[in-house]
Design brief:
The protein is an alpha+beta fold. It folds into two domains: 17-122, no CATH class; 130-174, no CATH class. Helix content is 41%, strand content 22%. The protein has seven helices and five strands, in the order βββαααααβααβ. A three-stranded antiparallel beta sheet has the order 1-2-3. A hairpin with a 2-residue loop joins strand 2 and strand 3 (34-39). The termini are far apart.
Length: 175
Amino acid sequence: MESSPKWQIYSRLIVPIKVQGKSSLIVGIESAGHLEWTELSILFSVSQSYALIDEDAREQLVSYFEKQLILFSNLCYGRNYSNKNFLGVIFSDDILSKYVWNTDLEPRIRAALLRIMLYIHVDSKPRTINSFPMLTKTYQGTSEQQQQQNGSDPISQGFQNRPFSYKQIDVKRIF
């Protein structure tokens, strides 16, 4: 039988994640028969290595955890509101923005967290229509009329002291 690495994937084949306080995520790594909970930014830091994991095992863990986060983001794609509500509790926008802006975190993990942020919080209601009123500034009179009145080209003189009015046109729809 092969010897297992120093870390093992939890028996459910999902790396367990919990919220600690309101601002950080902790990840469970099985070590010596029990789960050892470690803060996400410490476990996947680029500048410092985690003591219980050698480099090969760390690369496997980063790759596995990245794939798990991508799975979570794919579960929240589109109109999957039940998954968005369930995972939105763990991955709040404050927590995700904290880790996405952390440059010391592994880039692949940051990218996967950004994808979760996009699907859970940014693109949460893709079919919602927002209406914004638009006001436009219109020029009264044509350039030919102004040229006949002034005897010169209005474009070369600019549009100073010309009559402008505001009118409301149809609303702009943004999807």
